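REQUEST ID: PR-0412
SUBMITTED BY: lab tech R.K.
PRIORITY: routine
TASK: structure prediction, single protein chain
INPUT:
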Amino acid sequence: MIGVILAGGEGKRLRPYTSLIPKPLVPIGGKPVMEHTINRLREAGITSIYISTCYKSEQIQKYFQNGSRLGVEITYLVETEPLGTAGALFKEPIFKRNFYSDKWRLFFDHRY
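STATUS: complete
OUTPUT:
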């Protein structure tokens, strides 16, 4: 099973915090919010993660790199211009199949 994190938005509602860093890197509890998400995916047994990025993508890639530090494998889907929610996913061959498959799950944890 693979995980997908949508991390391409500008985080306009979090300005001024997101003027310099992308929303996924905003610290919560001493680490970037997306690191919490990656850790939860890994704890659920998901170690192959696709991250769809656009806004300040280079900062996200620099911080998380290939994911090995967190015990996961990260593949980046980088939009050079915003393509809308999950837009980059539909350009990737692995995501062109039907999303309504038993191989797809949505994890939500209200503790965050």
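NOTES: DSSP finds two helices and five strands in the chain.
REVIEWED BY: pending
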